[in-house]
């Protein structure tokens, strides 16, 4: 074989610079999108893991290590163990014990010594709510100056010689909240009762720099005092104040002389910037090692045999892993759909180039060029264009999305580049295996499909059916296998194969009736469309796959939006809710809220949450409403609609008051009358006449709704207002409500459901996948039309020499394109609808829609979104007709002589 030389490649690139530039642009764009997908998923996963750790309480996200001062040791050794040098040295050793990839954030970690048993403060000037003295927790946190701001006085310090267990006087600081609640000032003296009284001189008041950080929130008593009851479980037990005193680290040995049972503690805060979703299994292993593995044994041998390690990171990682496992397959479905359409476009690009150069390649084969040599030449000229373009796309993706792994992006961009390089050589090798001087007509379909094609189509059918059945049975979870991600794509593949099989015969059967019509344009269009070659399978596959992906992705996004709207509506009951914090709402509030911008109407409701039935076993919420206004609200929101007459008692009647009840309450009381004692002490007799699962006023499984005209004047006073409107002004509502009422907006509640970047990332990926699939499908349609453009142009030129007018030429091309576009559109709509109907039982959108699955909100199911089917269909029709009309107009401008050449085989 003659080696491939540069002059051949250079000559070919110079001969068709436009085609080379278009291929480079396509490869660069596709490689960029392919490389960006795994990097974007990595970034969403990393941000989601960091957010999951940051959102939980510091006591749950940090690793808490506690150790006694050394039981059984000499007093001097115990004192040395509590000194700051020893505790800080142990902190460094503990950090070294933490296994990678779990990293410790030293700026947010804390360590020191604290008492585990509260010490009684004997001073009578400290508040005593029920006559009991306050109790104190003494702690020596590290770097108090770095974690708090001094508000008054000075920071505590140790004066004189070293502190020992016999020291009876120390200095301390307290936080602003502790000082305000317990009436402590700089200069106050607190006498702590112990085996020997310890006098604590408060020298300063401090304010935490990061109140939610591990330094202050793991033991919140150090930041703010709490009012607790004496142990025993009695709800009426006397209460006492529990506060914290912050001693200097050098004073820690003094705690040995108290009855507080001091311990050393180390709170290790994880470095959230070093957390990566791809390391989740290793992170879990690191936590397990610290809690009950080799790390624990190492700490106990280093600190004390009674060292304890506690953390909630394992539960955080488990929850995050479950969320990622539920969202991952849904994202894979979108990626598979868009990737399939992009791959089809790359294959069509190679097929179009091979078709354009058919005569050239046939001539090379006829002159003795081997199949291997021809393939090598085509691969070289394609690689010269595709490899730099693929590298450029990869570089753009890496620069645009930093901080993610390079290898998955490299594999994705490499796969795109490989397909682009091999599409033309392999297509040409398949078409020119045998040396032919004259080729057959390219616009005629084969009379009978080959056995290979039949086997391939049956295999695709079997794979699609298996994927759909697997998804219906097991759902879109990580255990369903990779085949499930391709289920919507395979459904589109089956539809494309069926249409390719049925399309030509059906059109040929329609040709005979069309021949009886006046004019030859309709007959000619059908006759040409019925002779479509097998190569039309690729553009049809691209269109149907894009349809299915768009329908599936659009339905996912619509289902997510509907689930959030529904959950927010259930939580609020209307567009906004204003509810009294205690007692009824102030008079005149309804008028003020009605004037707020965006409020169209409001419904007054009086809710008695502590009403009790005759048995008195438990409280039962009773909502008093105006039947007409409340029925209109229930019908508008879709929450338990009813007719107003069903809650209205006849005038002057002494019958029991009709009530709307939840199924739980209806099952409990039945249809017999029963008395209910309201919060104001009055009693009313009710009879359940309507049963509904939901109601706007109460977001619970047990409720009663009655006409408030049948209640006492006190019980009928409104305690809540349900507002309807388009975007009520939240600030104006809160200003009008004042401090006596709380304001909840449906829009704010809806925004709260997205608390993880994994959820928002999945939505962004779906949106991008639908957009990319639509773009590549349009490109596939354009490539298909471009492949037939020379033949169509020559046909119009010949027909114009026979008297075809320009208007008839445009009509011919439009009519010829419609028999292909209309079945594709109809098949795409049917395929998208069928795919959603088949796959919806296995798709649960609750995880991606809501921050936490709420049983009351129900299961978020996948449903068909009409717009996701209608918009792509309309776009395909418009694009097809527009391109056909534009081609006819352009060929008419060139004239017949310019298109016809002697010996032209078109």
Please outline the helices and strands:
Layout: H1 6-15, H2 17-55, H3 58-61, E1 63-67, H4 75-82, H5 84-97, E2 110-115, E3 119-120, E4 135-139, H6 144-147, E5 148-153, E6 169-175, H7 176-182, E7 189-192, E8 198-208, H8 214-217, E9 226-229, E10 239-246, E11 262-268, H9 280-292, H10 294-302, E12 308-310, H11 313-356, H12 358-366, H13 371-400, H14 407-431, H15 451-474, H16 487-515, H17 521-530, H18 537-572, E13 576-580, H19 589-594, E14 599-608, E15 612-613, E16 622-625, H20 627-637, E17 657-661, H21 663-669, E18 674-677, E19 683-691, E20 704-707, E21 720-725, H22 730-737, E22 741-745, H23 746-751, H24 757-801, H25 806-839, H26 846-849, H27 866-894, H28 896-899
Parallel strand pairs: 4-10, 6-8, 16-20, 17-19
Antiparallel strand pairs: 1-11, 1-12, 2-11, 3-4, 5-8, 7-8, 9-10, 13-21, 13-22, 14-16, 14-21, 15-18, 17-20, 18-19
Helix pairs in contact: 1-13, 2-11, 2-13, 2-14, 2-24, 5-10, 9-10, 9-11, 11-14, 11-18, 11-24, 13-14, 15-16, 16-17, 16-18, 16-25, 17-25, 18-24, 18-25, 18-27, 24-27, 25-27
Description of the molecule:
This protein is α+β, with helices and mostly antiparallel strands and 906 residues long. Helices cover 52% and strands 13% of the residues. A hairpin with a 5-residue loop joins strand 7 and strand 8 (198-208). Helix 2 (17-55) runs antiparallel to helix 14 and helix 16 (487-515) runs antiparallel to helix 25 (806-839). The longest helix has 45 residues, at 757-801.
């Amino acid at each position: 074989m003659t080696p491939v030389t540069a002059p051949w490649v250079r000559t070919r690139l110079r001969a068709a610079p436009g085609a080379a530039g278009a291929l480079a642009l396509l490869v660069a764009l596709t490689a960029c999108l392919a490389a960006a997908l795994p990097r974007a998923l990595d970034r969403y996963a990393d941000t989601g893991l960091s957010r999951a750790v940051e959102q939980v309480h510091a006591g749950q996200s940090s690793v808490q290590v506690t150790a006694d001062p050394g039981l059984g040791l000499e007093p001097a050794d115990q004192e040395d163990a509590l000194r700051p040098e020893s505790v800080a040295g142990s902190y460094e050793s503990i950090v070294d014990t933490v296994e990678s990839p779990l990293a410790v954030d030293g700026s947010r970690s804390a360590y020191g010594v604290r008492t585990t048993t509260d010490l009684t403060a004997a001073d009578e000037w400290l508040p005593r709510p029920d006559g009991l003295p306050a109790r104190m927790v003494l702690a020596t946190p590290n770097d108090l100056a770095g974690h708090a701001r001094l508000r008054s006085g000075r920071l505590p310090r140790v004066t004189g010689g070293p502190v020992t267990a016999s020291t009876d006087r120390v200095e301390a600081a307290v936080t602003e909240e502790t000082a305000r609640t317990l009436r402590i000032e700089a200069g106050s003296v607190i006498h702590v009762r112990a085996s020997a009284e310890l006098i604590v001189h408060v020298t300063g008041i401090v304010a935490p720099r990061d109140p939610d950080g591990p330094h202050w929130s793991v033991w919140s008593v150090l930041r703010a005092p709490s009012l607790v009851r004496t142990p025993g479980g009695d709800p009426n037990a006397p209460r006492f104040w529990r506060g914290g005193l912050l001693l200097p680290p050098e004073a820690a040995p003094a705690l040995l002389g108290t009855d507080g049972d001091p311990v050393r503690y180390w709170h290790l805060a994880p470095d959230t910037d070093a957390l990566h979703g791809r390391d989740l299994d290793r992170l879990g292993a690191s936590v397990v090692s610290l809690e009950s593995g080799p790390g624990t044994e190492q700490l106990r041998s280093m600190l004390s045999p009674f060292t304890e390690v506690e953390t909630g990171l394992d539960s955080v990682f488990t929850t995050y892993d479950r969320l990622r496992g539920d969202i991952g397959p849904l994202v894979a479905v979108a990626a598979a759909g868009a990737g399939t359409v992009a791959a089809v476009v790359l294959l069509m690009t190679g097929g179009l180039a091979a078709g354009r150069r058919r005569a050239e390649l046939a001539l090379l084969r006829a002159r003795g060029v081997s199949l291997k040599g021809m393939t090598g030449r085509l691969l070289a000229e394609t690689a010269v264009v595709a490899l730099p373009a693929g590298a450029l796309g990869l570089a753009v993706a890496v620069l645009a999305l930093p901080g993610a792994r390079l290898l998955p992006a490299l594999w994705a961009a490499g796969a795109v580049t490989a397909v682009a390089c091999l599409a033309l050589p392999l297509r040409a090798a398949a078409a020119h295996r045998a040396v032919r001087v004259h080729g057959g007509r390219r616009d005629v379909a084969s009379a009978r499909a080959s056995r290979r094609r039949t086997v391939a189509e049956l295999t695709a059918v079997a794979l699609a059916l298996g994927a759909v059945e697997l998804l219906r049975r097991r759902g879109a979870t990580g255990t369903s296998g990779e085949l499930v991600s391709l289920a919507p794509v395979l459904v589109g593949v089956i539809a494309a194969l069926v249409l390719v099989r049925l399309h030509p015969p059906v059109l040929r059967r329609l040709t005979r009736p069309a021949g009886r019509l006046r004019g030859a344009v309709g007959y000619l269009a059908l006759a040409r469309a019925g002779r479509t070659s097998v190569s039309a399978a690729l553009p049809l596959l691209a269109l149907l796959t894009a349809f299915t992906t768009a329908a599936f992705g659009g339905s996912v996004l619509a289902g997510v939006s509907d689930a959030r709207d529904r959950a927010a509506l259930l939580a609020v009951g209307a567009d906004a809710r204003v509810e009294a914090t205690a007692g009824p709402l102030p008079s005149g509030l309804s008028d003020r809220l009605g004037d707020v911008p965006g409020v169209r109407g409001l419904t007054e409701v009086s809710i008695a949450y502590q009403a009790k039935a005759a048995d008195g076993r438990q409280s039962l919420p009773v909502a008093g409403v105006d039947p007409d206004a409340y029925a209109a609200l229930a019908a508008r929101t879709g929450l338990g609609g009813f007719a107003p007459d069903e809650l209205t008692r006849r005038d002057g009647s002494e019958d029991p008051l009709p009530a709307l009840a939840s199924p739980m309450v209806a099952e409990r009381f039945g249809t017999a009358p029963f008395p209910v004692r309201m919060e104001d002490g009055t009693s009313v007799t009710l009879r359940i006449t309507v049963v509904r699962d939901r109601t706007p006023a109460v977001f619970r499984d047990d409720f009663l709704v009655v006409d408030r005209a049948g209640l006492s004047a006190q019980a009928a006073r409104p305690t809540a207002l349900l507002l309807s409107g388009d975007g009520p002004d939240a600030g104006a509502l809160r200003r009008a409500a004042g401090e006596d009422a709380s304001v909840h907006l449906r829009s704010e509640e809806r925004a709260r459901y997205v608390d993880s970047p994994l959820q928002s990332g999945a939505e962004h990926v779906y949106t991008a996948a639908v957009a990319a699939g639509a773009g590549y499908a349009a490109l596939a349609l354009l490539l298909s039309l471009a492949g037939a453009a020379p033949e169509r142009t020559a046909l119009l030129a010949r027909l114009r020499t026979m008297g075809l007018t320009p208007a008839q030429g445009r009509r011919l091309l439009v009519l010829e394109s419609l028999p292909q576009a209309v079945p594709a559109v109809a098949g795409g709509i049917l395929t998208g609808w069928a795919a959603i109907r088949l796959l919806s039982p296995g798709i649960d959108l609750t995880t991606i829609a809501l921050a936490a699955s709420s049983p009351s909100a129900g299961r978020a199911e996948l449903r068909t979104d009409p717009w996701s089917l209608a918009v792509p269909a309309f776009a395909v029709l418009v694009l097809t007709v527009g391109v056909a009309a534009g081609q006819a107009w352009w060929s008419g401008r060139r004239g017949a002589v310019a298109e016809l050449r002697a010996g032209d085989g078109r």
